[in-house]
Please model this.
Amino acid sequence: MKKIINILVLPCLILFSLSSCEEEEKDPFYKLSFDEIETGAYFRSILAGGTVNLNDLDNSVYNIQGELVTPEAGADVESIELWVEFKDRSTDSGDDDSVASTFVTSISSSSLPTNSNGFPEHTFNMTIPEAMTALGLDSTQISGGDQFFFQVVIIMTDGRVFDKDTSGDSIKGELFFASPFEYTATVVCIAVPIPGDWVLEMIDLFGDGWNGGNIVVSLDGVQTTYFPPGSSLTEIITIAPGTSEFTFTYTAGSWEGENLYTLTDPNGVVVLDEGVGDYSQENGPREGELLNVCPD
Model:
């Protein structure tokens, strides 16, 4: 009997060890003392999204609304900046019109209003024509599938800088922080959606939610954010007759290899089936707007 118990206990110890290792790897502050953790700042997303419609670039916009979270409630921040980068995804002809990250605007922390959470709040409202001007682009250089990357940068009063490259994965990916620092807008061609009930099924293989990953659905400009808080979640998205715009945008978090989803239209056709399922940190669903892909 003792041998049987030992045999049974050993796999349990192995499974517990593997689970503990993954939890440790997911928590970058594991085993660190409080004095070893550097405090800084992040821009927690409240709402972010927009549409870059190739058929109507002049009226295309992208908005990022967030609150500035710091140890001194913003008093230790000099300013927050918005930068934009353009990635040419249609380079078959050999021409690459990509433009490196370019400064757009800056706002002083002291000028920001305080929201009900006690944090300074700001909304970056960026029209695509403004972004194109900052990047030195014209409409002939924009094609379906190209991408704009909007980047928030925080400048501290002590000279430190927090952005997508200097902030940890937990800050950028975990749901509590919700501060990716970079937001992706893919150039699309808006199509009139099929009215009825669309079914969105979301899965997290580890069972701890999407770690900052999310889907933003916009119906004629009204946005709703979706993500599973645990292992899975199913949502019904009802498209009313007469709806002219239905956009579906995925934004990555951390541990992307755990995230899977399908989107099924009212006729039972699976329109999107996304995710790799390899439990990795980066190999997840495609980012950007995926429903209104421009024809080649």
Summary: The chain has a mean pLDDT of 86. The chain has three helices and 16 strands. Helices lie at 2-26, 128-135, 169-173. The CA atoms of residues 11 and 239 lie 49 Å apart.
